[in-house]
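Q: Please design a sequence for this.
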């Protein structure tokens, strides 16, 4: 008996079997399946996975491989140029079709576009499915048929359009391909960090893979979701879902998260619940990247190209290490290093400090986040940095400059967050925790703090930094209305 030509299921950032449309389509074709993941560190250039992403990917591929094996299919691992590897696998297997998720990353879109005709010449069809987003980027349009550039009308249109279908569970068994196929051994990819001490806390905090994602969602819905609307800006509490790395790697479908949260929300999520609104920010970021492929590199507002960004290696390094002398910024940057994740409010404060008070380019912050975030996402990271910098489509106005002391006092009033990540300040009274340089000598001594020795003095005078940023902004060419 001859075996039917198989279907390749190409996994990228949709590393799950549950509610996975590419897998579903391959199964519907009634063919044996060849699941594959290709590690391409060449084509993405500067956007090859950073250190934290590689750590996560190692765990996520281990989990996906086990989930597939338990159902009768083997995950094939290949390393090389994306298009070339997929083409080679199609030739080796005699596959009739490839099913994969739709890409929004410009390098990946280009790779798939180039691959299609090469596959077609061999009679292989490449089918793209919406595995990563709730809304296909072309689906939502303004009344004039154009692309949205402002979040609120985008979110309104998305909410009105609604989510199609119900999330469905992972199949119990899979028709594996019986032919012999070479596969790399994951350990040889060197994704696990060379410095194991760096990842120690991350290993304790996170469980990459679909099971870890489902457990995180369940815990969030019972513990933090009921108070999310009120508490989500408080970084010292476990107030948000921490689902971002799972969503980025596609270990859980956004539809599953959306539907579970809607069911748990008062009124079934209507009017739009603040958590669902955040999921729409994720959609909006991908939408922006789709419509503006230069988003990760170039300001959307062209006039920002003339911004007199500074070069200051010492200031940049102090920011990266969490040694700026501004407690809430330092706490955030240290949380990032230790956890591979930072609370959203603090991301905004730390990013604003970099681009405004320090007048360093947003791309420098974006690159650091890219390397250190477990949820590093080309779209969300770029869109968020441009939002903070004021150069984005729907951005915070540049002249609105976060005061990190006031932000700290407002969102971390007892300093729980700062005390946790900046332990050398832990014994300071609440009133000085966000501005230790304002504390009298006696209070500092009693808390064991010696500024400039045990904890740095601020690397910049906040007032001067603010004035410099405003002056730079005022000197920009005005945007044509
Ligand atoms: C400078 C800066 C850089 C950022 N870089 C990234 C990034 O690389 N990857 C990333 O996933 N998020 C990024 N964010 C957005 C946001 O900070 C994180 O998504 C959020 O903190 C993740 O925590 P959570 O899962 O507990 O979020 P929750 O509050 O539980 O939100 C649920 C989900 O909604 C999505 N989401 C929430 N806020 C945003 C947002 N503002 N933009 C896009 N999606 C959002 C995430 O997928 C998140 O998991 C960035 C924000 C800033 C200010």
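A: Design:
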């Amino acid at each position: 008996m001859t075996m039917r030509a198989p279907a390749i299921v190409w996994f990228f950032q949709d590393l799950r079997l549950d509610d996975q449309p590419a897998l579903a389509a391959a199964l519907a074709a009634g063919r044996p399946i060849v699941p594959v993941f290709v590690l391409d560190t060449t084509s993405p250039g500067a956007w090859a996975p950073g250190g934290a992403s590689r750590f996560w990917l190692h765990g996520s591929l281990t989990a996906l491989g086990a989930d597939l094996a338990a159902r009768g299919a083997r995950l094939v691992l290949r390393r090389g140029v994306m298009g070339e590897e997929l083409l080679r696998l199609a030739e080796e297997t005699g596959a009739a079709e490839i099913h994969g998720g739709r890409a929004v990353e410009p390098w990946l879109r280009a790779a798939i576009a180039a691959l299609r005709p090469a596959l077609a010449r061999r009679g292989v069809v490449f089918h793209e499915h919406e595995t990563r987003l709730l809304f296909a980027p072309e689906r939502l349009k303004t009344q004039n048929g154009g692309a949205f550039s402002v979040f609120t009308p985008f979110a309104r249109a998305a909410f009105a359009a609604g989510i199609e279908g119900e999330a469905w569970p992972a199949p119990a068994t899979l028709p594996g391909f019986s032919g012999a196929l070479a596969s790399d051994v994951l350990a040889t990819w060197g994704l696990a960090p060379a410095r194991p001490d760096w990842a120690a806390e991350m290993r304790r905090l996170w469980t990459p893979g679909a099971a870890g994602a489902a457990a995180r969602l369940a815990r969030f819905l019972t513990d933090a979701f009921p108070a999310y609307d009120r508490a989500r800006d408080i970084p010292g509490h476990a107030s948000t879902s921490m689902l971002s790395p799972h969503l980025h790697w596609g270990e859980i479908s956004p539809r599953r998260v959306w539907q579970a949260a809607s069911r748990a929300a008062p009124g079934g999520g209507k009017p739009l619940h603040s958590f669902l609104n955040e999921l729409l920010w994720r959609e909006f970021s991908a939408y922006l990247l789709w419509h503006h492929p230069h988003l990760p590199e170039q300001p959307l507002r062209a006039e920002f190209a003339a911004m007199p960004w500074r070069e200051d290696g010492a200031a940049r390094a102090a920011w990266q290490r969490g040694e700026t002398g501004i407690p809430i910024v330092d706490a955030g940057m240290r949380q990032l290093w230790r956890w591979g994740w930072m609370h959203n409010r603090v991301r905004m404060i730390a990013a604003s400090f970099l681009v405004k008070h320090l007048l360093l380019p947003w791309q420098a912050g974006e690159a650091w986040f890219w390397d250190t975030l477990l949820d590093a996402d080309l779209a969300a990271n770029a869109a968020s940095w441009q939002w903070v910098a004021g150069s984005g489509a729907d951005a915070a106005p540049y002249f609105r400059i976060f005061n990190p002391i006031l932000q700290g006092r407002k969102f971390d009033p007892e300093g729980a967050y700062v005390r946790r990540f900046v332990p050398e300040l832990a014994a300071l009274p609440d009133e000085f925790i966000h501005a230790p340089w304002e504390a009298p000598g006696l209070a500092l001594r009693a808390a064991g703090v010696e500024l400039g020795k045990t904890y740095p003095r601020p690397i910049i005078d906040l007032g001067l930094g603010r004035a410099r940023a405003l002056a730079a902004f005022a000197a920009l060419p005005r945007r044509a209305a």
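Q: Thanks. Anything notable?
A: The domain at 302-474 is CATH 1.10.579.10 (DNA Cyclobutane Dipyrimidine Photolyase, subunit A; domain 3). The pocket of flavin-adenine dinucleotide is lined by residues 232, 240-244, 247-248, 278-279, 281-282, 285, 344, 347-348, 351, 369, 373, 375-377, 380-381, 384-385, 388 (CB under 6 Å).
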